[in-house]
């Protein structure tokens, strides 16, 4: 018996990268995993690999109708949802003055509106399940920022705030809501980043999707006294700068 048997989990953006690692780990712990992604073929392939009652569903997380259909289908076939991992996300670069409004909106629609719609759509199902857990995949850019990623940082800071509001609103129903803040993780999203990108970190490497997945599982299965909380895995970046102070004494 896995630690998540009898649980029905929706993982958005679960067809690749971090989401696929989360889907694999939750399934290995006995959850019925629904991979909800715009990449239908990859989602279906992964669901087949996971076996059991795993399935891939086509979902654009920025669509309210899409969420309504998804939750209805999952409830009908698998029962009430007790875990939601809002993982789907996109990054589009550009300085505040250079990025187009359309690009800014695309990023916010997927990264912030998407989880907001997801939490609203799934909340009644979580109540029917008798409680559950929502994990929102924010970013290190939801705790700090870098030049040239304004829309991404805004969406991820927003998701962090939304997480706390949802935690307060859903606590009476036995639902915990936490955010996860990864630094650089080796996925298709960071495929173009060289090793120099992480060489200045206290832990000078990219994180692996499986490391994020283990933190997500920890939040779901073990962090039973945490809600509205940020969980950081950043290779030590937030610890500060490497020592630069010298003394002549
Ligand atoms: P990824 O490899 O690009 O995977 C994301 C998945 O979500 C892809 O299958 C993607 O499809 C899908 N997706 C995109 N838009 C969607 C939508 N509207 N509805 C449903 N699915 C959608 O990304 P990742 O690196 O695994 O990132 C996963 C999450 O972690 C994101 O929220 C990201 O912001 C966050 N994160 C990543 C890192 C990192 O270093 N990788 C660091 C911090 C936070 P397409 O490929 O077709 O877009």
Automatic annotation (TrEMBL):
The keyword Zinc does not apply. This is SDR family oxidoreductase. InterPro entries: KR_dom, NAD(P)-bd_dom_sf, Sc_DH/Rdtase_CS, SDR_fam. The lineage of its organism: Bacteria, Bacillati, Actinomycetota, Actinomycetes, Kitasatosporales. The keyword Oxidoreductase applies. One of its GO terms (molecular function) is oxidoreductase activity. Residues 7-188 form the Ketoreductase domain. Keywords: Oxidoreductase. It comes from Streptomyces phaeolivaceus. PROSITE patterns: ADH_SHORT. Belongs to the short-chain dehydrogenases/reductases (SDR) family.
């Amino acid at each position: 018996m896995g630690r998540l048997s009898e649980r029905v989990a929706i993982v958005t953006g679960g067809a690749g990268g971090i989401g696929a690692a989360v889907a694999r780990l939750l399934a290995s712990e006995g959850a019925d995993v629904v991979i909800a992604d715009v990449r239908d073929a990859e989602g279906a392939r992964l669901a087949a690999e996971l076996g059991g009652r795993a399935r891939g569903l086509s979902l654009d997380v920025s669509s309210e109708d899409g969420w309504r259909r998804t939750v209805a289908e999952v409830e009908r076939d698998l029962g009430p949802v007790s875990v939601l991992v809002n993982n789907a996300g996109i990054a589009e670069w550009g300085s505040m003055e250079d990025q187009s409004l359309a690009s800014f909106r695309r990023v916010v629609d997927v990264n912030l509106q998407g989880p907001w719609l997801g939490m609203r759509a799934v909340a009644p199902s979580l109540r029917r399940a008798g409680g559950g857990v929502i994990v929102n995949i924010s970013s290190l850019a939801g705790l700090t920022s870098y030049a040239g990623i304004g829309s991404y940082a805004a969406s991820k800071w927003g998701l962090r705030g939304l997480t706390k509001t949802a935690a307060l609103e859903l606590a009476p129903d036995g639902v915990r809501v936490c955010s996860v803040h990864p630094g650089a993780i080796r996925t298709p999203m960071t495929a173009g980043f060289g090793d120099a990108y992480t060489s200045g970190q206290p832990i000078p490497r990219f994180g692996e999707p499986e490391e994020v997945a283990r933190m997500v599982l920890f939040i779901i299965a073990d962090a039973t006294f945490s809600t509205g909380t940020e969980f950081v895995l950043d290779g030590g970046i937030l610890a500060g700068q490497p020592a630069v102070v010298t003394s002549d004494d």
